[in-house]
């Protein structure tokens, strides 16, 4: 509901997740578990812009793929967002394999 307390709760959860990932990846050196998102980190500009292009192409075609955005069920919205993020990481990996990369 965008209240200050909700913002602090979300910030606290984000901090705990960041601290856990930092401890696992940097302090312990365990990075193999994150190999599926490595292309997204390596080609971050492509990862940042490709979803917008795909999202607007889907919106213009009226294909109801992103129905999770209209769901009133929080779990559906969360799972849909996670699936979309993983799909975009996969799309970035595919684009990188065919040598389509955005660079500054």
Q: What integer is the average pLDDT?
A: 89
Work out the helix count. 4
Runs in which pLDDT lies below 50 for 5 or more consecutive residues are none
What is the string of SSEs from the N terminus onward? HHHH
Helix and strand content put the structural class at: mainly alpha
Strand content: under 5%
Helix content: 55-70%
Characterise the protein shown here.
With 104 residues, the chain is mostly helical. The protein has two domains: 1-30; 34-104, no CATH class. It has helices at residues 4-27, 38-42, 44-61, 74-97. Helix 3 crosses helix 4.
Which key features would you list for this structure?
4 helices, mainly alpha, flat, 104 residues, 68% helix, 0% strand
Outline:
The protein is 68% helix and 0% strand. With 104 residues, it is an all-alpha fold.
What order do the helices and strands come in, and which of them pair?
Blueprint (H helix, E strand, L loop, with lengths): L3 H24 L10 H5 L1 H18 L12 H24 L7
